[in-house]
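dude i think i finally got it to work??
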Amino acid sequence: MPTSSTSTDRTIVGGLPPPPGHIPNFDNTGNSHYAGVHQWDVPLVEVGAFIKRQYFGELAYYLAAFFTKTSILSFIARVFRPHRRAVLFARVLMILMVLYYLPAIFIRILRCKPIRKTWNPIVGGACFGSEKDILYVDCVVSLVSDIAIFGLPR
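look at this
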């Protein structure tokens, strides 16, 4: 097994060393999922599979963000129990998280009919809303909720 590394491997500062027997090569990941490969170098027949993985990854992100934020808020509500105002604000934020993320997940799942049109534009059907608009709304809501959670303990 080769023991050399590329120039980009030596520019990483502060990272952990790779496990024994593993040689990192960030110039060519060599995986079948085209991670790290320029978009235009991915064969057209593989683009649909990549978009499909991205679709399911976004659904996982929504669930992870929801559960992370609500668990932080429930922790804050428990720690700051003597401070009624902080507990009330944390509970209101938890309700707002449910009111946003539940419909957001369903909008993401059911945006295109049939669902596979999301990752395969050749399939007949229709999609509502713009992907760009959905991402903007998600970014704004995430930013505002993160700032509100960050400022809550004060």
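DSSP finds four helices and two strands in the chain.
im so relieved honestly
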